[in-house]
Amino acid sequence: MGWGLRMVMRATRGETFQGGSYSKLAAIQIGFLASLPERERPIEWNEEYGYWTVDFEKMIPATRTLAQWTLRHYAQDHFQETDEAFQYYITGAGFQHLHRDRLQAVMGGMPSVLFDYEVTGLD
């Protein structure tokens, strides 16, 4: 999460997304994971506190969903539909879901202040 958020922050200095391939990948991944249905969503923006909440139990199934969606669309030659979906996360409404204003405000410090997490299952 820290790497992805930092890549997004570096690509969003200004009103538009100006990142390279890794920044786009990070924006697409974070955007996709944050826009899944609530029961599947591994990351959630907390408006009250201004940080991401991460549910690691949902993360693996959610990233599998992203990979399956991407592979299915490319395998079926739905390149334009896939590109349009990916463009959503780096422009327009999808771009707003990245909360870049908050990213820029805190990423110079410790990125951990952008998300809340609890590690479980280490027994």
Give the oligomeric state of the chains in this entry, treating copies of one chain as homo and distinct chains as hetero: single chain
- Cα(first) to Cα(last) distance is 24 Å
Broad shape: globular
Strand residue percentage: 5-15%
Mean pLDDT: 79
The level of helicity is 40-55%
**Which structural category fits the helices and strands?**
mainly alpha
What are the low-pLDDT stretches, counting only 5+ consecutive residues below 50? none
H/E series: HHEEHHHHE
Number of helices, where a helix is a run of at least 4 consecutive DSSP H or I residues:
6
**Rg estimate, integer Å:** 15 Å
Characterise the protein shown here.
This protein has one domain. It has a 3-stranded mixed sheet with strand order 1-2-3. A hairpin with a 4-residue loop joins strand 1 and strand 2. It is 54% helix and 8% strand. By secondary structure, the chain is mainly α.
Entry summary:
The chain has 123 residues and is mainly α. The protein contains six helices and three strands. It has one domain (2-42, 54-116).
List the helices and strands and how they pair.
Blueprint: H1 2-11, H2 21-34, E1 43-46, E2 51-54, H3 56-75, H4 79-88, H5 92-96, H6 100-106, E3 115-116
Parallel strand pairs: 2-3
Antiparallel strand pairs: 1-2
Name a few traits of the molecule.
6 helices, 8% strand, single chain, 123 residues, mainly alpha
